[in-house]
Amino acid sequence: MKPIAISCGEPAGIGPEIAATAWKRLRGEIPLLWLGDPRHLPEKTRWQAVSGASEAARVSATALPVLARDFGAPAVPGRPDPTHAQGVIDAIRDGVDLVRDGHCAALCTAPIHKAALIDGAGFAHPGHTEFLADLAGVEEVVMMLACTALRVVPTTIHLPLSEVPARLTPELLEATIRITRDALIRDFGIAAPRLAIAGLNPHAGEDGKMGGEEIAMISPLLDGMRAEGFDLAGPLSADTMFHAAARATYDAAICMYHDQALIPIKTIDFSGGVNVTLGLPFIRTSPDHGTAFGIAGKGLADPSSMIAAIRMAADMAQARATR
Ligand SMILES: NC(=O)C1=CN([C@@H]2O[C@H](COP(=O)(O)OP(=O)(O)OC[C@H]3O[C@@H](n4cnc5c(N)ncnc54)[C@H](O)[C@@H]3O)[C@@H](O)[C@H]2O)C=CC1
Ligand SMILES: NCC(=O)COP(=O)(O)O
Q1: What is the ipTM of this complex?
Q2: Who lines ligand 2 at CB under 6 A?
C-alpha cells in the first residue's frame, strides 16, 4: 500500500516521539512517511531521508522514512519555539499535497500547539480541521472522534462557549448530520447509521423551561430529516446519552459543542480515541490528544492513540481502494 503521511506537529511536544514509536510497532505492516525536521525525532530513532512516497514505501520496513525540512533549530521538549511555526504548517501542507496527488494513502497529523502557530506564523485557523477544509476548498467539514465504544461529533468546534448558540444554525446542524451519515456508510461500513442528537441545554431544554434551541431549531430540523429517511434520536439530554446502554442504541452522537462531545470519549478511552475529519476529499486522522508538553522528551508518551489513528487511516484507505 501507499504510505500514510505523518505531519510532525509541534516539535516541542510528544508528536515526534509517538511517531517514532508508532513506526517501530507498525513497520512491515503499514508504510509511513514522516514530514518534518529529523533533528526533532528522538536521538535513537532509526530514520532515513527519502525523496518521496515511493522511496518511503520501499524503506519503511527498515527505517522511518523522512521527507526532511529544515526548521532552523533543534527543539526543546516542553518549550515551543515560534521559529518552528512555519515549518509545522508547511509539513501539514506537504502532507495534503502528497495525499491529494495520490502519492500517499492518507494524512495522519501529530498534535500542534495552536497558540505557537498563531504567535510564530500568524496561523489563521483554530485547528487542523479548519485549516484542512481551507486547503481543500471545502465549506463544511466535520470533526469526529472515534473509539471502539463510541463515536462523537461536535457540531460547533473550536469556539468560545459564549459564541455557540449564535453559531449553532439549522444549516450547520443539517450539514453535520448529512456529512456524518455519509461517512459512516462510506468509511465505516454502517449501512443504515443511527444517530443520536444531543440537546444544547440541560435536560435538552426541559420542554422550553431551560432554553429554547431544542424547540425552536433542533426538533423541527430532526423531524424534517426523519421524513427524508434519516434514523435520528433526539434531541436528547447530553448527560444521560453516553452510558453503556445508551451508547448501544446509536452509531454516532452528534453533539452541539466541543466539550459536550470530547469529554465523554476522552473519559471512556483516552488512549484509543482517534480524531478523523469527515467531508474532506482525502483521508485525515489524528490522535485524540494534544502536545502533552509536561511529558515531552521523557519517554512517557503513550503511542496508542497515534497507532490507532494510523491504523484507522490505513483501514479507510483500504476500504476506499477496494470499493
Ligand atoms: N490535533 C491537535 O493538534 C490537538 C492539539 N491540542 C493542543 O495540545 C495542547 C495541549 O493541550 P491539552 O489540553 O493540555 O491536552 P493534552 O492532550 O496535550 O494533555 C492532557 C493530559 O494528557 C496527557 N497526555 C496527552 N497525551 C498523552 C499521551 N500520548 N501519553 C500519555 N499522556 C498523555 C498530558 O500529559 C496531560 O496530562 C494545546 O495547545 C492544544 O490546542 C489538543 C488536542 C488535539
Ligand atoms: N480538541 C480537539 C482538537 O483540538 C483537535 O483539533 P484539530 O487540530 O484536529 O482540528
Answers
A1: 0.98
A2: 127-129, 262, 275, 286
